[in-house]
Design a protein that fits this description.
67% helix, mainly alpha, single chain, 15 helices, 415 residues
Length: 415
């Protein structure tokens, strides 16, 4: 299976800017101080393993798995993906892949904690009922009426929280759709307005293709803009871009200065400058989504409600379920915390969108349009010249037989 070539190449060390180059190590002639013993048998003392360190390692592991999965590249769906997506065996496939799910693995700490609390409550109540503890210890039980009254409130709170996160996801998707469509339209306007194939026109098209990549690197954490833009921009342009604080706005400055130097008519220049507004709007919307989360009081309220609910759930269910409170608490925590976790994940939409694939696709589309522009123009010019040599009533060139029949009919007509 052959992999498609992408316009983003790996940045070699020789093309790095001067302030990014690795300087050679300098060794001093003076003897250095011995900081550790030369005895190879001596090893640093191992870290002491405590209960706190063990308990802390579980959420650290879950967070590490979640962050690694967040960095994975998400592909755009094709026809084969949609067929698999709506397959009738999708439920079995999703069930079998539960242990590899990012959402489920990130829920291991809270679900394990509340299930353990349920097991402790069940063990305590069993010990009290079997008179293994003094009679002063009461059985932990309570009426289920408060839970029946607050269950609808918890359900509405989770629904509103997830809906608010999805609206942010949809807003980010629409913003990127405008950026991608604006990039394609901007490149098309440049190819139409600038007739001469100059180096400045080529550079302007490169800057236009580089803008979505720069915006993606500006929004997604730990992105390498030097690697992504190495095969798209010249080395001197890339050096200026890397030295700037705001990469997308630096690309816009490249675009604006290039349009000033282009030898085009003023109406065409005005149209091209209006296309830059789409880029500014995309930066503004995306930065607002990243910088302004859902009100933190809303997120804290949902989290506190869920924690208190599941801490007291074994006490409420003890009279009706006894030891079944342990699997019941596990199912409830896994279900409700999963809904809350999905809302938290999609609250930052740019980690969930296929931005890498969108940038690659827009670059491929513009590059294909550049390659086919000359051929299409030559074909149309040939058609225009052929039509001017052999005009007809409908504007299309006529064949030789049609011209002969027309001349015969004109000569045989009475004068």
């Amino acid at each position: 299976m052959t992999t498609a070539k992408t316009p983003f190449q790996t940045l070699p060390s020789s093309s790095l800017p001067s302030h990014f180059k690795i300087h050679p190590l300098k060794f001093s002639s003076k003897p250095s101080k011995i900081l550790c013993s030369q005895n190879p048998n001596l090893r640093p003392p191992p870290k002491s393993i405590t209960l706190i360190s063990i308990l802390r390692s579980i959420p650290d592991w879950a967070d590490g798995v979640k962050e690694r999965r967040m960095k994975q590249r998400r592909p755009l769906y094709k026809h084969e993906d949609w067929i698999r997506h709506r397959s009738s065996v999708r439920h079995l496939r999703h069930l079998l892949s539960s242990l590899s799910s990012r959402v489920i693995l990130s829920l291991v700490p809270p679900v394990l904690a509340f299930t353990s609390v349920a097991a402790v409550v069940a063990s305590y109540n069993t010990a009290v009922l079997w008179h293994l503890l003094p009679e002063i210890f009461p059985v932990l039980r309570a009426s289920s009426l408060p839970y029946q009254l607050t269950a609808p409130a918890l359900a509405l709170l989770l629904v509103f929280r997830t809906e608010a996160s999805y609206s942010r996801f949809e807003e980010g998707r629409k913003a990127w759709s405008k950026v991608i469509s604006g990039t394609n339209d901007f490149a098309r306007q440049v190819m139409v307005s600038v007739e001469k194939d100059s180096s400045l026109k080529t550079a302007l098209l490169q800057y236009i293709m580089a803008f979505p990549v720069a915006l993606k690197c500006h929004l997604v954490n730990e992105s390498d803009i030097g690697r992504d833009l190495h095969g798209l921009l010249e080395d001197d342009d890339l050096e200026i871009l890397l030295s700037s604080n705001h990469h997308p706005r630096c690309i816009i400055q490249f675009i604006s200065q290039s349009m000033k130097l282009l030898d085009i008519e003023e109406p065409k220049r005005t149209v091209l400058e209006s296309k830059v507004t789409c880029f500014h709007e995309g930066i503004g919307v995306c930065e607002q989504i990243v910088g302004i989360p859902i009100p933190l009081s809303y997120t804290r309220l949902t989290s506190r409600f869920l924690v208190l609910w599941h801490l007291t759930l074994p006490i409420i269910l003890w009279d009706d379920c006894n030891w079944i409170v342990v699997p019941a608490t596990f199912v409830s925590a896994a279900s409700l915390f999963c809904i809350e976790e999905v809302g938290v994940l999609i609250e930052e939409p740019f980690q969930m969108l296929s931005l890498d694939e969108l940038c690659i696709r827009v670059c491929e589309n513009v590059q294909e349009a550049i390659r086919s522009e000359k051929k299409i123009r030559e074909t149309l010019v040939m058609k225009k010249e052929a039509a001017s040599r052999n005009p007809s009533l409908n504007g299309h060139p006529t064949s030789g037989d049609e011209q002969t029949n027309r001349s015969n009919s004109n000569s045989s007509s009475p004068r």
